[in-house]
Design brief:
Radius of gyration: 14 Å
Strand order of the largest sheet: 2-1-5-4-3-8-9
Structural class: alpha+beta
Order of helices and strands: EEEHHEHEHEEEEH
Helix content: 25-40%
Distance between the termini: 26 Å
Number of strands: 9
Strand content: 25-35%
Number of helices: 5
Largest sheet: 7 strands, mixed
Length: about 160
């Protein structure tokens, strides 16, 4: 399990815009990395739309929001379009990053295996984890007050 003070595992994933996105692309900038189980589900939609609606707060703290799930980049593109999301969605289709961050359900509902857990990480501009929350219950939301407090402490 990753914890505050650990170096965030590096990643290179494709976004819903079919572009490679690397954690190192955000060196010098804070990152809010949000793992979510599945696009188009109710809690995931609520979570990401809340981030969309509050993006000015995060931008004011030099933070880039990145959403990540095991959905294909094509599914994520449709989800992003329909929900008017204003931050990148990354496809961890091969489940390597969800595994590296300890945010993968081995078994999920409906017989699915290998679905991202709901999780929130704040990573500072040096790649160090400043906040880590991995939820076992996919119906719960990360504690966004704590995410915001961790970001505020960095500025």
């Amino acid at each position: 399990m990753l914890k505050v003070g650990d170096q965030a595992p590096a990643f290179t994933l494709f976004s819903s815009d079919k572009k490679e996105v690397k954690l190192e692309d955000f060196q010098g900038q804070n990152v809010v990395l949000l793992f979510f189980p599945l696009a188009f589900t109710s809690v995931c939609t609520t979570e990401l739309c809340n981030m969309r609606d509050d993006i000015a707060f995060y931008q004011g703290l030099n933070a880039q929001i990145l959403g990540l799930s095991v959905d294909s980049l094509f599914t994520l593109a449709k989800f992003k379009e329909e929900q008017h999301l204003n931050f990148p969605l990354l496809s961890d289709f091969n489940k390597t990053i969800s595994t590296a961050y300890g945010a993968l359900y081995p078994k999920f509902g409906f017989g699915m295996e290998g679905v991202s857990k709901r999780a929130a990480f704040v990573i500072d501009g040096n790649g160090t984890i400043q906040y880590a929350e991995v939820l076992e219950n996919a119906g719960e939301m990360p504690n966004f007050a704590n995410v915001k407090a961790a970001l505020a402490a960095l500025n």
